[in-house]
Design brief:
oxidoreductase (chains A, B); alpha/beta; Quinone Oxidoreductase, Chain A, domain 1; 12 helices; globular; zinc (chains A, B); IMP dehydrogenase (chains A, B); ER (chains A, B); Rossmann fold; six-stranded parallel sheet; homodimer; 339 residues
Chain lengths: 339, 339
């Protein structure tokens, strides 16, 4: 079967890989219906993380083709959505809602789902079957649930977005945009999108943003304060992962407010004294997408949300390298790969 | 009147100061019944913070002697307890429970309550009268409510201590010890005190600690994990404020757990990547003691808690310098100054 391998920064190739087989009795094999390229895939692509011949991809939807002897909740023929972190969903950490830190967690990045088939470990705890075979037009949204929507949703939950709250969103990539959608669904009263790209501002408004701030850094913080009686937002979603974006998020939050941070941290050092003085709540990390999947799938199935519109470029798997280039050059927000 | 002035590191003197007068109509003047020395007063005493002729002290209980025209909730003769941060208790931040970050906050350290009298700004929002004149033996506990108890209590609340939870406490000073008392009152199932001093271990057990860990740093983290099925504590109270203690707290917390940090941060830099991976909730800062005062005063009045036992040395105000020395040299955990 064919799959994406990253040989080094900027060097992505679609190559022949071995067809996955059941290794553990808890495994399932799926034939992918679609996969995609994640903002976090750009870190190694740009040389910020080391990479050397790694299979790529951790977002996936598809049809189960084979299951191990111990798998009971999905069966061949089921259309499934899974998280980018495989989890048993039964350990104490999973039961507390932190499946991305399951005691038996398997990061799907090691598996590589930018491919025709993939082995999904811990299938019962990782995969959720849709109510039936989805209409073709639902596939992008279901794929979004696998990571970007689940991550934006977690960020909004971690930031305690909800009725009566003003939510600010730092980062206008797919995760930030879907954080806006999540905040809206969770009932936020006002949503401030921080973005300087016209196309993303438009999507932000479509998802529920009520205000757009195009300043960044301290100037962006000032604008958020001006919009919130000088206090700052109740809830701030951080979806970038840099020192600047983290500080912008913390400083845009009112005392006692909540920061939900999901941008993968790169060279971030948080000053303890400022954090102490800010009195914000800080919570984030790799989203426990599995916690939210049943709810998100239902919302998509019922056509109440349309997160798939974040995919603004669709390419066949064979053209994955062009997809990486388009995202790296910001010609695309999020690339869907058809398989 | 007499009051404590710190002229420089290690140089504390009791001197004649001007008798405080009503400046704003929202002020009250109190005659102190007792004051005390805070662990945070040791930072400038040891040269870690700059100081040059500053009045000292921010913890206080006493009797109202005079009120400004706008004060309505306390009157001369009332015995009152106040927070170390004066607050209006009416702004949006106060109403959310963050009185220590009130939009009109006045840190009481500027006032200096290691003295015979003190001017309390924003008296209505800051002071809480006791149900009557307290018995003498209740005064140390009421004084503790003003800062160390209120701070330990906030740390336990921020760490979400409660039924079914295992709470670990980093720091065995007065705040850490009262964090144990708070966790117990909040219903924690198991409380792990991290302490290597026999006398403090004893007090920790008296307040409700079920386990004592005398290892520090990584070894301490390992012990907490051993005691919690390898997962870490649900809730961790940090009551020191150093890089080591913060990392010990974060690493002792299970994924998805809560760190409540109240040790005043000194040269702390939190690594973003580790925080991201840990998935802990982080919340802390200067405790909004005013939020908890009514409840804490009632618990003390009803003799349900006895936080005053953390004072292990009582001196007259005139001997404040000896009090500082005793705390600096760890001969005393917490010094009460009679006025």
């Amino acid at each position: 079967m064919r799959g994406v391998i990253m040989h080094g920064p900027g060097d992505v190739r679609v190559e022949e890989r071995e067809h996955p087989v059941i290794v553990e009795p808890t495994d399932a094999i799926i034939k992918l219906a679609a996969s995609c390229i994640c903002g976090s895939d750009l870190w190694p692509y740009r040389g910020a993380d080391e990479v050397d011949g790694a299979p790529m991809g951790h977002e996936y939807v598809g049809v189960v083709t084979e299951i191990g002897d111990a798998v009971t909740t999905v069966k061949p023929g089921d259309f499934v959505v899974g998280s980018f972190m495989a989890s048993d969903n039964t350990c104490e950490i999973c039961r507390a809602g932190y499946q991305s830190r399951c005691v038996h967690v398997v990061p799907m990045g090691r598996v590589g789902t930018q491919a025709e088939y993939a082995r999904i470990p811990l299938a019962d705890g990782t995969l959720v079957a849709t109510p039936g075979q989805p209409d073709e037009d639902l596939i992008p949204s279901l794929l979004a649930a696998s990571d970007v929507l689940g991550t934006g949703w977690f960020a909004a939950v971690a930031a305690e977005a909800g009725p009566g709250r003003t939510v600010a969103v730092v980062g206008d990539g797919a995760v930030g945009l879907l954080g806006i959608l999540a905040a809206k669904q969770l009932g936020a009263e006002r949503i401030i999108a921080m973005s300087r790209h016209a196309d993303r501002q438009e999507l932000a408004r479509r998802f529920g943003a009520t205000d757009i701030v195009d300043e960044r850094g301290d100037a962006g913080v000032e604008r958020v304060k001006e919009l919130t009686d000088g206090l700052g937002a109740h809830s701030v979603i951080e979806a970038v992962g840099t020192q600047e974006s983290m500080m912008q998020a913390i400083r845009s939050t009112r005392h006692g407010g909540h920061v939900g941070f999901v941008g993968v941290s790169h060279d971030v050092e948080l000053p303890g004294g400022e954090l102490f003085g800010s009195m914000v709540h800080l919570h984030g990390g790799p989203a426990p997408v599995r916690r939210f999947l049943p709810e998100l799938i239902q919302l998509i199935w019922d056509r109440k949300i349309d997160p798939g519109v974040v995919f603004d470029l669709t390419l066949p798997l064979a053209e994955a390298a062009e997809g990486y280039r388009a995202m790296d050059e910001r010609r695309a927000t999020k690339v869907l790969l058809t398989v």
